[in-house]
Amino acid sequence: MKELIDRLKKIVGERFVSAESEERYLYSMDMGTMPPSVPDLVVMPGSTEEVSKIIRLANEYKVPVVPMGGGLVLSGLTRALKGGMILDMKRMNRITEVNPKSRYAVVEGGTSEGMLQAYLKKHHPELKHSLPDAPPIATLAGNVCIHGSGHLSVLGGYHSDMLNGMEVVLPTGEVVRTGSCSVSSDWFGKAPLPDLSGLFMGWAGTTGVVTRLGIKLYPNYRYSDLLIFVCEDAEDMPDVISRLTSTQVAEDMTPWMTPIPEWAKGFMHINIAYGAHSKEELTFKRNLLQMSVKEYKDKKIGGFLPMPPPQKARYMQIPTPDLVRFADVRKGGGFEYVGAIMAIEHFAEAYRAGVEIAERNDVSYSMGARVVGAGHSMMFFYAYAFNRADKEDMARAQRALEETNAAALEMGGIPWKAELPAQQQIIEKMAPDTFALMNRIRETLDPNHIMNPGNWERT
Amino acid sequence: MEEIKFDPEICNQCETVDCLMKCQYIDFADVAEAKTEKLKINAGEHSRVLDECLTCYACQEYCPYDNNPFYLLVERQEQLGLLPAPTPIVTEQLKMMGPKGRIQNEAVSPPVVNMCAFPMLTGCVRGKLFEGASVIVGTDIFCNIMWLHFAKNSTIKERVPQMIDNIMNYYLKDSGVEEMICFHDECYGTYTSVAPAYGIEVPFKPVHLFDYINHRLDELADLITPLNVKIAYQRPCSNRLIPQTDLVLDEILKKIGAERVPRTYDRETALCCGGVPRAHQRDNLADELVEKNINDMLDVGATYCIFNCPFCMATLGQEVAENGIMPILISDLVQMALGE
Ligand SMILES: Cc1cc2nc3c(=O)[nH]c(=O)nc-3n(C[C@H](O)[C@H](O)[C@H](O)COP(=O)(O)OP(=O)(O)OC[C@H]3O[C@@H](n4cnc5c(N)ncnc54)[C@H](O)[C@@H]3O)c2cc1C
Ligand code: SF4
Ligand code: SF4
User: Does residue A145 sit in the same domain as residue A189?
Assistant: First the structure.
């Protein structure tokens, strides 16, 4: 180990390698319910070249490598399950290009959401990217790798759909590019080439290390507004979502259901965010959205909450502070936020299952969804807060999570950014030839099984 | 619980039907048509007025005989199930604004200022104007007048007596205080207009903010530096229930050197701020009201727009400011004149 550490120090510099117990402790866990797993060391590369050298070295020593961005995935995917090193990408945080006409940015693999947001605000106020509601230190690469979604997902789909291409260090150390940047100097998209980006998305860092990515940008409107639709029957939600998305004017649509505060319990809300270049356009878009669900208003079974501008401001913050606030309801630093990607028509079923499971396990819950595309699917989430210092509380949250994942799979959904037990549940349901193909690809890419081992493996 | 106090005979003999003829939001061909509709309302039958009403409260002021036309209208809307807003909007707000049982006994001393359910405005009670004041606030003492906008007289009848009990039992009684200053028109309207019309007893003496300020300005006369500003006043719906206080505002403004410029939409012809129609899902009408209000303020060259209603201020404030007019609460304007 000492020899490996010395050689790593030669690659990245003394300051950026540590095998100290403090660091190993801190990097052993995330905020979620998965138990800690202590790495042997932590290394922070500063360039693609350094990543490549580190990976070659890891192959030489057959030491596992776990790529990590913000470490905020909450489902324990950045724990070193079989020891080895955590490859903390945060030093690779440069924004190397912004193309305002073709609307994309190229960033390094450790660039945080907050950094790109701040950079665009300062240098390209006419542009924005789709932010998740994760704390701003979350990285674009980490988020794209888990098929994240965010504030422009109705407009642009999953964040992996907004990916224009990547530079990746393979598990054997070669540097490849996917998308237009593999042929051209422009990072305009993935067409018309065979799409190799899929080899790295959804794989939980088991197929390579993303060192750069091109991500789509969108117009940042001068005016923005938000409507909150409310109804009481979860059965109405698929139709309401379908009508609202059919207008094709919303940027983001996030249903939410929560028993805290008490007044909100039992009500279905949908936050609908949209923007415009002028006030007239904004009003026009609002009218389209309102017209789409007029039938609900006429029957008096649904409508839009009246909200004066100062009240709205709270709901229009990006990222929203509400989830973070909820994460703290039980105190003690425990929070897990899992979701299942599923078809819109399962909304009521997903909601009922969530309430039933949370109440049975006596956990603090908040539920919601993010509509993706023009109602093409949704990420339905269950957030459970727990007190990490209270073993019973944590066990309850863990149980609720497992039951939630089982219920999601049962109704045809697929757990998102699946933690280990959920990965097993998915593998059980997956077409066997598909899982066999996954294994063959992985075997080809990573013959020494060094990349985030323990994930996507049948136990 | 008693029925709303009104005398059908007075309406039968009424020749002008001012309550409806002066309505700014519903048109009638002539007095005869207005009368027909009014009599339908009185008889508990369906009238288009019950559907079209913006719930601006103004007819309550227009009736020369204090025959409570608006309270009765709301009663009929509820009886006939004609909710002006979708059910979930109403039921969720009913829960949100319901008493939370968090109130605790507290010794208070005069002046006791009731800030209703709006803790974010308690900072307004400060300085010489409110020297020594005790502030009471929270959903457990919420005046509940807002339900007039949602055909929920039943909630008013149920909750207002509860709120009155809370005010007495948790604050005033043990401290031997008999007067309570209502910071908002809503509360004063509830305790001096709604309560008697609904047969609810009020065991304390409500004092309107304007009366309190007017009196304080006499005591603090030496400190006043006239502002010499033109102000547009956004008169709120609940002031329609207590029109006598509007004249007190004139006295206040005179004392602090602020000119209440004659707007098209002030006093009897004040226009709704646009907040409530949004709850009724009438956004296009709300847009129109906002635009009319703003243009009117600009036309008269106002530099300040003064509000006494926090909801009007929240609804219009940003738009007012974007148009170069300073939105301000009346108490803050007065404090400016006192050099605070
Ligand atoms: C309060 C809160 C709100 C959230 N809201 C959202 C939301 O709205 N939308 C959303 O999508 N998510 C959300 N999340 C979940 C999560 O935090 C984000 O998805 C976040 O962007 C993940 O990025 P990260 O940098 O923290 O990834 P990490 O946790 O560091 O990594 C995630 C996965 O990607 C792999 N990985 C990371 N970087 C690389 C790389 N360079 N190359 C290869 N593999 C890599 C890791 O090994 C791991 O498997 C939220 C989380 C919290 C705590
Ligand atoms: S309410 Fe008043 S104004 Fe209206 S008809 Fe009756 S008496 Fe006349
Ligand atoms: S409340 Fe206003 S809108 Fe309704 S009838 Fe009376 S004056 Fe007309």
Answer: yes
Calpha distance B293→B289 (Å, rounded): 6
Q: What is the chain B residue with the closest CA to A227?
A: B278
CA–CA gap between residue B181 and residue B111 (Å, rounded):
7
Q: Is A139 in the pocket of ligand 1 (CB under 6 A)?
A: yes
- Ligand in closest contact with the CA of A69: 1
Rounded to the nearest angstrom, the minimum Cα separation between A286 and chain B is 9
B34-91 confidence digits (pLDDT tens): 999 999 999 999 999 999 999 999 999 999 999 999 999 999 999 999 999 999 999 9
Domain boundary among B213, B231, B266: B213
Domain count, chain A: 3
Strands B258-260 and B229-234: parallel
Residue A428 falls inside a structural domain: no
3-class DSSP assignment, residue A455: coil
Closest partner residue to A230 (CB to CB) among B92, B98, B311 is B92
CB A240 within 8 A of CB A293: yes
Q: Is B275–A306 a contact, with Cβ atoms under 8 angstroms apart? A: yes
Indicate whether B150 and B198 sit together in one domain: yes
CA dist B31 and B20 (Å) reads: 9
Domain range enclosing B44: 8-79
- A127-137: per-residue pLDDT in tens? 999 999 999 99
CA gap A79, A38 in Å, rounded: 7
Q: Tell me the per-residue pLDDT of A369-389, one tens digit each, with 9 for 90 and over.
A: 999 999 999 999 988 877 878
Q: Are residues A7 and A103 in the same domain?
A: no
* Structural domain range at position A35: 2-88
